[in-house]
Amino acid sequence: MFRQLLSRITKRQLVIGGVVLGILVLAGLIACVVAYHKREALLASTIARIQSRMAADYQIDLAIGKAYFSGMTTVTLEEVKVLPHDREQLAGVEKVSVSIKLFPLLTGDVRFGRLRVHDAQIQLIKKDSISNYDFVFKGLDTVDTAEEGLAEQPDEASVNMAQAANRMLNSVLYKIPEDMELRDFILTYRDDSISQRISVPNADIDNGYLTSAVFLNDNEAAWQVSGKLNPHKRQLYVKIHANGQKIAIPLLERKLGLKLSFDTIETRLREVYWTNNEFLHFKGEWAVKNLTINHWRIAQKDVVVPDAHVDAEVIVGNSHVELSKTSTVTVKKLVVHPFIRYTTVPDKTYAFGLETPEMEAQDLFDAFPKGLFESLEGIRVSGKIQYKLDAFLDTANPDSVQFDSNMEQKDFKVNAWGNANIPKINKTFVYTPYEDEKPVRDIVVGPENPNFIPLAQISPDLRNAILTTEDPSFFSHNGFVEEAIRTSIAINFKEKAFKRGGSTISMQLVKNVFLNRNKTIVRKLEEILIVWLMESTRAVSKERMYEVYLNVIEWGHNVYGINEAARYYFSKHPAQLTLGESIYLASIVPRPKTGLYSFNYEGGLKSYIAPYFSYIGNIMARRGLAPADSSGSYGFYAVSLREALRPDKPVAADTLQLEMPPTDFETELQQVRGLLDRIFNSSEEEENQ
Q: CA 677 to CA 611: how far, in whole Å?
């Protein structure tokens, strides 16, 4: 076919073609010669333009001792210094040589071919609130409108997230040279409290293969870095280890109190590609061995993950970014498929999902890192389980939040409870309450303790009032109320703070009896797991759970259990509590130490709490838990605090100081707000029953 094509070309056409090609080659040679002779001037002009831009935009002086071409496409700079105005020197390089690839340059892409750096230093210094690197953050807040031709910054809706992610990736990958020689590089960080130094005697990239040694604080730690870099194919692999030793990051511990270490960490960018010219896909892996984490907000002891692997796919679209459902997290035999999606248009939305395949139940507990859930250590189970969680929040309509959680079980059974020993509360046991994370006293929960009151001997009004305010569906749910969780998410999002939890009586009981009082993230997860075990196995009856709950919860300063509470406030046996007294005791469960501020010097309740009585009483009446009261007081005026606890009578009006003790006023204000919040929440819970 090629021969036939040549046979059709005439001699005249060949001559014309040859002349045109010759002209193009000659023009190219002339352009190269001109560019070659003018390249020094172009280099000087480019450097001057960069220096001017950095001084104007970032208040940085870029000083260069010498700048020259040391090859056709190689630029060498000597004695380079980066000096922020009125700050200490940020960086300095004795000598750097870099070559630029010609063909990508024709399309506007700047890609490094070879890089040589010798004797380089970067020092990050912060004194008080002033640093020599704050220009970095200033640059993030502004847009060069002159260059971009924009009058103002574009809003999120006008930004194509996929295109932006692609440009960001290219700006990183294209700066990775195929050939690099880095010698004697030092990075230091210093502020008012700490100083850190990282030195790299050598780092090399040879035909894409990376090798380097990194030393922390003059041999305090030595890290080995290796990998394979293939930026033009958008593929990277990097491995960090320390020859069998632990790799720690002391800066995190000194700045944040976070102890973090590991033996080996590996990361791989496997592939990047487009689908339908609209969605940008990133596929990669991450693995770590013997990861150790310790922070007082996470857990009280070291959390050790011996081996974990993440295989992830991130998809970026025009207005969304998501962690795909195909992503997999593997810890021992536990396999989890997480899903996260953030969307900006037309409104910001957040979606979160979690799913596991059907698995042996024991694999779940075996996968828990050591030190994570102390109370569940030693547990042995059988059967199969499968878990699925889906949540969705539309910020424009947070009340429409979705939350669904489901644990499917097949022949699930607990063969040995381990440290948790949930069935222990079926018999007499010792409960230790905590105050400021310190034990207060030991309380025997059982007939051996004269303060223990069986459920049947507690006033029905008290039992019904607590159920109404704390957990109306306690005797029918499985430990969790999804509607309460949905309401909690919506309220907390609207308030931009944690204003309401979704705790059931089951969860409160577990928190009091089985867990320490350290407020950590792990403790909440542990609480959820123990509630699921207790409810799903029916290890404890609902009646016994409620009985223990009423006998151990706090009702005031060093007042625990309904018997102590009834005698402390009203000098009564729990069986004698009236409806009004029961509603009052129910009102102080969330804030037991502020309960006495509800009373006046005569022993009656202050007027601000009356609406709460009316609201809770009406709910109880509609449910048939209390007789209807046309006055709406529901025993409010009959509540009388025992005389020994009543506050002092106020000073006569003519000598009254116009100042209320701040602590009393603030406490009463908190009480009012708390009661209004509980009224509001009670109305929502009632509608959802």
A: 12
